[in-house]
Design goal:
Blueprint: H1 2-14, E1 22-23, E2 25-26, E3 35-40, H2 47-59, E4 65-69, H3 77-80, H4 92-97, H5 103-106, E5 108-109, E6 115-118, H6 134-147, E7 150-155, H7 162-170, E8 173-178, H8 184-197, E9 207-213, H9 221-225, E10 229-235, H10 238-245, H11 250-253, H12 259-273
Parallel strand pairs: 3-7, 3-8, 4-6, 4-7, 8-9, 9-10
Antiparallel strand pairs: 1-2, 5-6
């Protein structure tokens, strides 16, 4: 396992951005906006499916992408990306606990070129994450973005938790995912109001992605009144959920991808890359 960790670290260095050269220290020549957070506002949204497929789509654009799973109590992105789970204490927890830890040894390569994952272990105890201050979250994300062109963060919707607020604050742009639920607007409003009260700019999280849309009558007028921007509306695609259960990516491994799903995912990719 130690040998594997060294191989992983070496692999990440070798696959550094084509815009960077490694001569001892890392040369920083990154995208101006590189950290993007995703947080759900309702039930029936599975950010893991969205982020894993989006990460692959961005990696296909020749960007080195790191997905950070901050759902420290219930991580699941390692399943969707078919990455072996970390042993207890490894991965995200190691980086948070030890300022001297080499993050390159805790980030796992996926089977997809240029796509990587930093994840907690599902064996970690919940109480191990209670005492981390928000500065630890800032420091961890600052380190990750030094090594990768694009960082995608799966943010838990738990506003009092430092991993939620810290990730929102460190995101250059944020996306709120929601389903066609009657409580979607109120949940989004409450989340943005709370974040604003604690110094997190609500403006960068006004991008809304509707998930699992079922072509039902839904009043989108309030979205416009609140000056929220619907970036994409992903249709309900049973194949996406089925592929995720098998550790496959819908847009890569499924020959019957919903054309509208692919189109809307492309809109999100364009939205992210248009910021630079």
């Amino acid at each position: 396992m130690a040998r594997q960790s060294k191989e992983i670290a070496g692999l990440i260095l070798e696959k550094a951005s084509p815009r960077e050269q490694f001569h001892g220290d890392i040369q920083e020549d990154k995208l101006l906006y590189s950290v993007f957070g995703f947080i759900s506002a309702t039930d029936f949204t599975d950010n893991g499916i969205l982020i894993s497929n989006l990460g692959y789509a961005l990696a296909r654009q020749n960007y080195n992408v790191c997905i950070v799973d901050l759902k420290v109590f219930y991580p699941n992105l390692y399943l969707y990306l078919d990455v072996p789970q970390n042993k207890r204490g490894n991965g995200l927890l190691t980086v948070l606990k030890d300022d001297r830890a080499d993050i390159r040894e805790e980030v796992k390569p996926t089977k997809y070129d240029r796509l990587y994952l930093l994840s907690p272990s599902p064996q970690d105890l919940m109480e191990e994450y209670f005492d981390f201050g928000i500065e630890k979250v800032y420091a961890m994300l600052d380190t990750v973005k030094k090594y990768f062109d694009i960082v995608l963060i799966d943010i838990p919707n738990n506003p009092p938790l430092e991993f939620c607020l810290g990730a929102m604050k460190q995101s250059h742009m944020g996306f709120i995912t929601a389903s066609e639920r009657i409580d979607a607007i109120s949940n989004i409003t409450r989340l943005l109001d709370f974040a604003s009260s604690l110094g997190v700019s609500a403006a960068k999280f006004t991008n809304i992605i509707f998930m699992n849309m079922q072509d039902i009558k839904y009043d989108f007028s309030m979205i416009k009144k609140l000056k929220l921007n619907v970036v994409a509306g992903l249709p309900l695609a049973k194949g996406a959920a089925a592929d995720a259960l098998e550790g496959k990516l819908y847009i890569k491994d499924n020959p019957l991808v919903n054309g509208h799903y692919r189109k809307e995912l492309t809109c999100i990719v364009e939205r992210i890359l248009s910021q630079n």
